[in-house]
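hey so i finally got around to running the thing on that chain from the lab meeting. sorry it took forever, my laptop kept dying and i had to restart like 3 times. anyway pasting the input first so we r on the same page abt which one it is
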Amino acid sequence: MKPGKYDVVIIGAGVGGMCAAALLTHDGYKTLLVERTPLLGGRCSTMEYKGFKLTTGVINLSPGGNVNQIFDQVGAPFDIGAEPHVAFRVNSKDYEMPSQGGLRWLLSQVSSNAETEKMMGAIKKAFTWQEPAGAISFYDWLRQYTQNETILNIFQALVSSQMVVNSWELSARGVIRFLELARSFRVCGFARHGNMSLWESLAKVITGKGGDIWTECPAKRILVNRDVATGVVVEKAGKEVEVSAQVVISDAGPRATVELAGSDNFDKGYLKELNETLRPSPIVWVQSAINTPHFNHQGWITITDSRRVNAVVCPTIACPELAPKGKHLLLSGSGPVSSLPPFDFKKEIELHLMDLGDNFPEFTRYGEVLNAGCFWGEWPGTRTWPGYEMPQKTSIVNLYNVGDAVVPSGMGSTPGVAESARLVVADLKQRIRPAENTRSV
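ok and heres what got predicted. didnt touch it at all, straight out
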């Protein structure tokens, strides 16, 4: 095929790649987005099965959050059905969180006033005066202020469900940063017609402003000349096509980016940092069909005293479009007690299903498992633990990474991914202007 020329080539149509492509085309950069699968959105897309719209990973997005802001900036509809705040299931009892002061209120329901004030005082100090040390785990930091197993279980369920790693594996500093930033995104929501509908909306904006999107076209190589990225070789219609570009952005993950560009082209220090830093996090998601909701709460229920399951949600209470008429979709998440391999995912799924039966007895009789996804390896829960992120710039000039391995410290996965795209685009715009002679293939 005839070679093409673009300002920017983006590898991977995940959240980071899609957001970067939208921002760049909006600002006049001729952009090509290549994706190896037929789906847009990566781990935030949709699979159709038995009339259900199942997620490929991400469950909810925040109205008014980072992703929503990018959609608004480029003029793409962001069709989200808002959900109420979360609830906590503590010792088999559900506590729906108030809109303000929820954590203090919850702790006061399960412990004494003195213990609640001691715990909240420590958190306030960490927010307003000095973050805790990075050398101590969040779990061990908590145990300085409480030995109450119920309180410890509440924070473990909160951390593992939101950060996809256990409280005894993450630093106290990292969790406090996350919790502080998370206060800005209290309301979440579901894509009414599945996550894929959001990215189809954004794709229309990208192509409408002169950008190109090639699905089922895997990137084969990142071209590098004298330590500068100069383009990408892409397989299209069974043939390899060379696409030149001023900048290459990868949403394939730092390890895959190195493989595509060739490790010999990277600084040894960068490779050492990558090998010693990145820690993919595992997660199990089970998506089940149920006849009636097992609870009336429209948002998340964080489970604090189970073997594995840390959160459940029934998105069809708010968005019935995600299931066939008369059916509901139950989503549940869990993680192993160690986020480092080896893993026995068969056992993890067995424990997960036992938890569902214990918490919702009718599930055992009437629930149908539609998909049990074990996210690990090339398709992890997140490509690295919070606090173990890599920089967005690589040691190759004009080669960037976006995605959950390069989010700003303290930011959650999807908002952080969108922010990584925004930061890369802002840096790129300061350095490189759109060329006038770029054209599509």
